[in-house]
């Protein structure tokens, strides 16, 4: 989940996306969506349909990423909901039954909402990790986008919570998903001083937004750079340059892709004149009315992930088939898993 002025809004149906140079392949490539908020209420009315559409576009795994303690239970409820649907479909032994991506959970206290986090949340999160082990810790990090978040007390609390969650990652040998905005130098300094080792534990710099030097610095520390629908915007020159520079130095092994849905919709799927305010994502800060006012035409969806793949393929001059396979491996490396690369040509859609 990101909170930047270029947060995109989208049409709910990716089939409505129209840009001549980027089209879905006839046979989808296997993909892993490394960062979503697919548990959000904005998906409650059609989550099953959106999961089915994502599967049809090749998405085989997706991450449900935490940000507020009060919503941690919702992550597990969403995971169970989709698993039960697929199990019920499979029990019918219907060859044409629907399939859905496998879901995986990350638990984390997001720095943008630092005022809402308490020490009790940290303690409860630590206990939850022991009892319901997630696949990663995230999204965690530092964010000084607003003046209020730059204040010494707020920044100190962010740093303390960041360090505490890195401690949990080390204790449980889990990768982390970083949210870093307008605080790359501070985050890099903290990471270098901490005993968290991304070369051993994995990790992702989610929705990377820094420049060339920051990109190289995070990759050097062992993190993969998370690329969202932002890259589809030709005006995102700083981001595109940073990605190209990182790849020039470290190869395509340094990247993973993500939707960050319902935010960060690819530009070819945006509804004109509906960009988010400069200081917030579609989430906003009213936890009781998330994505208020949003509907199926104002959100990103997991099925839009191929637009990130095709744009990266074009930007880096790497064939989609080659890039998709490498991104799959990169995602497995970053998350410390060993998911087999599927042969989608043998599967029906």
Structure description:
- It is built from 11 helices and 8 strands.
- It is α/β, with parallel strands linked by helices.
- β2, α2 and β3 form a beta-alpha-beta unit.
- α3 runs parallel beside α5 and α8 packs parallel to α9.
- It is globular, with a radius of gyration of 19 Å.
Tell me the name of the CATH homologous superfamily. Metal-dependent hydrolases
Low-confidence stretches: 2-16, 18-22, 274-280
Number of helices: 11
What shape does the CA trace take?
globular
Overview in brief:
This protein is an alpha/beta fold. The chain has helices at 47-56, 72-91, 119-131, 147-150, 152-172, 184-193, 198-201, 212-220, 237-250, 305-316, 320-335, and strands at residues 31-36, 59-65, 102-107, 136-143, 176-181, 204-205, 224-227, 255-257.
Topology of this protein?
Elements: E1 31-36, H1 47-56, E2 59-65, H2 72-91, E3 102-107, H3 119-131, E4 136-143, H4 147-150, H5 152-172, E5 176-181, H6 184-193, H7 198-201, E6 204-205, H8 212-220, E7 224-227, H9 237-250, E8 255-257, H10 305-316, H11 320-335
Parallel strand pairs: 1-2, 2-3, 3-4, 4-5, 5-6, 6-7, 7-8
Helix pairs in contact: 3-5, 8-9
For the structure shown, list the relevant keywords:
disordered N terminus, 8-stranded parallel sheet, 11 helices, TIM Barrel, alpha/beta, 349 residues
């Amino acid at each position: 989940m990101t909170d930047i002025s270029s947060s995109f809004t989208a049409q709910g149906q990716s089939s409505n996306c129209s840009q001549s140079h980027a089209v879905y392949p006839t046979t989808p490539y296997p993909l892993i969506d490394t960062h979503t908020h697919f548990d959000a209420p904005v998906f409650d009315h059609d989550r099953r349909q959106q999961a089915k559409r994502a599967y049809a576009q090749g998405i085989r795994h997706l991450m449900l990423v935490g940000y507020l303690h009060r919503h941690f239970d919702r992550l597990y409820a969403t995971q169970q909901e989709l698993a039960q649907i697929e199990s019920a479909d499979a029990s019918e032994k219907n060859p044409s039954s629907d399939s859905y991506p496998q879901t995986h959970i990350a638990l984390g206290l997001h720095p943008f909402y630092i005022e809402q986090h308490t020490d009790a949340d940290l303690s409860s999160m630590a206990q939850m990790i022991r009892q319901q082990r997630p696949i990663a810790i995230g999204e965690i990090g530092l964010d000084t986008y607003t003046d209020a978040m730059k204040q010494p007390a707020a920044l100190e609390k962010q740093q303390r919570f960041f360090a505490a969650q890195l401690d949990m990652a080390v204790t449980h040998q889990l990768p982390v998903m970083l949210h870093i905005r307008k605080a790359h130098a501070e985050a890099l300094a903290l990471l270098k001083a901490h005993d968290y080792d991304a070369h051993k534990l994995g990790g992702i710099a989610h929705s990377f937004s820094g420049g060339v030097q920051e990109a190289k610095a995070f990759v050097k520390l062992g993190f993969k750079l998370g690329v969202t629908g932002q890259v589809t915007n030709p005006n995102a020159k700083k981001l595109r340059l940073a990605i190209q520079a990182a790849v020039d130095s470290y190869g395509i092994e340094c990247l993973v892709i993500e939707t960050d849905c319902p935010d960060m919709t690819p530009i070819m799927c945006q509804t004109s004149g509906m960009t988010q305010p400069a200081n917030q994502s579609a989430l906003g800060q009213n936890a009781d009315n998330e994505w208020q006012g949003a509907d199926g035409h104002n959100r990103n969806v997991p099925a839009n992930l191929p637009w990130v793949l095709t744009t990266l393929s074009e930007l880096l001059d790497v064939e989609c088939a080659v890039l998709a396979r490498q991104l799959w491996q990169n995602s497995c490396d970053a998350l410390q898993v060993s998911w087999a690369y599927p042969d989608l040509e043998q599967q029906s859609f």
